[in-house]
Design a protein that fits this description.
The longest helix has 16 residues. This protein has 267 residues and is α/β, with parallel strands linked by helices. It has 9 helices and 11 strands. The chain has a domain of 179 residues: Rossmann fold (3-Layer(aba) Sandwich). The two termini are 31 Å apart. It is 37% helix and 25% strand. Strands 7-8-9-4-10-11 form a 6-stranded mixed sheet, with helices on both faces.
Length: 267
């Protein structure tokens, strides 16, 4: 492995570009090569992520699981282009995100990643429709197309009839559905969900996980970050993180019932 990692780090810019093109042709949406995230604390180096290598194909439903302090949240930030690795390569849908500057990372986040957060992160004074429409405004999509796509996303999460309601007029589960619709509206390469049921009661949480399963069956690529076994078991594959490293990578019993939909270009 060390020789392979050294070879990856030594790739020329053109070779890195060619590798990204090949990954995209192979239907690989996420590929990390020996990525590290190191923080300097006084005279100490803290390795939050240490040489992680993961590969996620289009159409997979993957949970990243680990206890508090395991490095899973740092890894999520790297995958979500919210942070950059200290070293190593990270390809997102064929693009070398680890080499990007802040402006480029912002653009790729809006285009390629649909975020779903534990606390919903909705605008309190905006309707569900406007909350879902926001990423399209940032993307420069014309008004008529924005509204149609926002309605389509709300329809996908069974919330079209509540599109004109504000967050304080919705239940917790409905707010999370609005957040999921917002994540879907840009037709991203991946849905990245961070503890999406953490602020919900058990019954509502089960409804949201059932929605994720349906979205996966529709061909969406889903990466779920959690510390809960029962939530992780909804996925077809679980990557266990401990001490900043991949402890193990295993398929679940669900994986046998459905194979990844590698034929879809975006989802």
């Amino acid at each position: 492995m060390a020789t392979f990692q050294t070879a990856v780090h030594d790739l020329s810019p053109k070779e890195r570009e060619v590798r990204g093109e090949q990954l995209k042709r192979d239907g690989i949406v996420i590929r990390t090569y020996d990525i590290w995230k190191t923080y300097i604390m006084g005279d100490q180096e803290i390795h939050a992520v240490s040489g992680v290598e993961i590969e996620i194909k289009r159409g997979e439903y993957v949970a990243i699981m680990g206890p508090s302090g395991s490095g899973k949240s740092t890894l999520m930030n790297l995958i979500g282009c919210l942070d950059s690795p200290t070293k190593g390569l990270y390809y997102l849908n064929g693009k070398l995100a680890s080499d990007m500057e802040d402006d480029e990372l912002a653009r790729i986040r809006n285009k390629e990643i649909g975020f779903v957060f534990q606390t919903f992160n909705l605008l309190a004074r905006a309707s569900a429709l406007h909350n879902v429409e926001l990423p399209l405004i940032y993307a420069g999509i014309p008004s008529s197309e924005r509204l149609e796509r926002a309605r389509e996303s709300l329809r996908a999460v069974d919330l079209e009839q509540r599109m004109h309601h504000k967050p304080n007029e919705l239940s917790g589960g409905q707010r999370q559905r609005v957040a999921i619709a917002r994540a879907l509206v840009n037709r991203p390469s991946i849905l990245l969900a961070d503890e999406p049921t953490g602020a919900l009661d058990s019954n509502t949480g089960n409804e949201i996980m059932a929605l994720f399963e349906r979205l996966h069956e529709d061909g969406n690529t889903i990466v779920l970050v959690t510390h809960e076994h029962d939530i992780a078991n909804h996925a077809n594959r679980v990557i266990h993180i401990r001490d900043g490293k991949v402890e193990r990578d295993e398929t679940t019993t669900k994986a046998a019932t459905r194979s990844p939909m590698a034929g879809n270009e975006k989802f």
